[in-house]
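#struct-pred

JT: dropping the chains for the assembly here, can someone run the whole complex?
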Amino acid sequence: MEKQPRLLASQLLLKNSFFEVSLNGVLLTWKEIPTKKKRVSGGIHYPFKVGFCFPKFHRRGKGESGTSHSVSVSEILAVRELDVDSKTKDDGRWQKMPQKSTEAYPYAFTVSYVERAWQHRWRCSDVTFHCLEGALCQQWVQTIRGQLAALTSRPKHLLVYINPYGGKQQGKCIYEQKVAPLFTCASISTDVIVTEHANHARDHLRTEAELKQYDGVVCVGGDGMFSEIVHGLVSRTQRDNGVDQNSPEEKLVPCTLRIGIIPAGSTDCICYATVGINDPVTSALHIIVGDAQPMDVCSVHHNNTFLRYSVSLLGYGFYGDVLADSERKRWMGPARYDFSGFKTFLTHHYYEGTVSFLPATDILGTPRDKTRCRAGCFICQHNGQLYSEDAPEICKTDPDVSDSEYEGGWRVIRGKFLAINAASMSCACPRSPKGLSPAAHLADGTTDLILVRKCSRFNFLRHLLRHTSKYDQFDMTFVEVHRVRRFHFTPRHCQSDSELDLRENGKRLFSQICRDHPACSCSPAYSSWNCDGEILPHAAIEVGVHCQLIKLFARGIEEQPVFEDLANPCAI
Ligand SMILES: CCCCCCCCCCCCC/C=C/[C@@H](O)[C@H](COP(=O)(O)O)NC(=O)CCCCCCCCCCCCCCC
Ligand SMILES: Nc1ncnc2c1ncn2[C@@H]1O[C@H](COP(=O)(O)OP(=O)(O)O)[C@@H](O)[C@H]1O
Ligand SMILES: [Ca+2]
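RK: done, full complex below.
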């Protein structure tokens, strides 16, 4: 790593021990001075070696010379000066000062920073340094503030939407108690809207919100609430740029505003797969430090009419039926998915139809890879660049090139399917920490199309159970998986528009269901699509992936630090 010039270095008091504290452009480091070397310093600038220098994680160690900590400046949330009378100057919060240091070292400042906890959780930690002189204290505060002000990717003003009815209906409480205090600490101002009905956030974003004044949009809720924000922002961006969403071939314009998710829903799979955990404090901290994670978005069309966008799961058959059943049991909260999942598993319906898809052949990675999409993913960077340079099929808008010219690359599969799933990302969630497609990538411009053919209940159960274990859910004769850029699905019996209208009104056409089998002991003709947790009544759809259309306040799942394992060779 390039050596950074030291900006400040002093001996300061921390909890009655002296520390060598230094700041360069990248790290704030404090290292305990061994007892016999301790001496009072009013701010002598002197050279010493910083023992730890890891770029991403702050380290804590205890060597011969005492404990040592390093915090990346990019993960400092705030710095505030403490008053002599032990009251913070900035926000009026009272803090208890140790008696000894208030007497001898009356000036102090507190640095709030990100600390990594268990299983990808982040927490806010405080460290308070005491100084002999006010001027030195001021110098530290000003210098750290200067460093923070130079971090241009951090949001200053956010628009927040809270779904008070998502998940266990705790959205408002989670935001007020866990998130708002952190935003205040980091000097982020917010405009908060508590939604009053479904699609309130989507419509507000699409038509009314004055987006220019914000650095990002935050939703407090589940995947459905996130989906509302995506629809609002993507539609608004296309409208502002004169792009017609109804044309499946059109290249969409990426959204500039980043989206933050404070998880307060039932599945929270988008949060889980982009941050590594569904934890409100962790998500708030990723927003504060100004992380950015690009994400693919699928557009779903039917007969040249735009239906919806999807970022996680598009599922027909099993997941469509689970969702349709679970919507009638919202009162059960998140447990509705387990109940409806069990019920749908027992009904064991299969659906006939034709899937045609355009395999992504020019990219790095396959759905059977052992590597995973992680923070700074090389495959996403590589394939994202390829997409913008080569302008793949979905970007082609040349009216002279007819669809049939692409047909060469398309594959067609007819069959009876228990499930047809398109996972644009892993869909990892607490129910399945590796997800529906463990090797899928967040931002590679593709979706993993998983076809589960008709099989016995026992085999389907084996397939489902493998989502929760280390065994490969694709390594089964009745399952296939393809990494694709586009796909179409047509059910065996095509629906008329009047059938669709009835389905949209919630009336299922059981009279039409078993045309070929009047005894009606078999599967219905149609399922519906589960589009990120929203029901799509159309069975016939056309889907295309738009590479990196949106950005989240996230960085992808961080690899767990390995330095602890290295100390124990048996653990490797
Ligand atoms: C036997 C255990 C099998 C466990 C299999 C778990 C696979 C889970 C993969 C989940 C992928 C989820 C993708 C995300 C979808 C969300 O967008 C979407 C909306 O989320 P929101 O409500 O937060 O807004 N969520 C969903 O559609 C929920 C899907 C949940 C499916 C749960 C399925 C449970 C299956 C249980 C089968 C039990 C069989 C037992 C037989 C003895
Ligand atoms: N104020 C509201 N009243 C009713 N429904 C709402 C409200 N705000 C948002 N919704 C809708 O609630 C649905 C579920 O929201 P979500 O936050 O995803 O929770 P969950 O994860 O429990 O499904 C979404 O379809 C969203 O459009
Ligand atoms: Ca993808």
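JT: nice. The mean pLDDT is 85. The pocket of calcium ion (ligand 3) is lined by residues 296, 424-425, 440-441, 444, 446-447 (CB under 6 Å).
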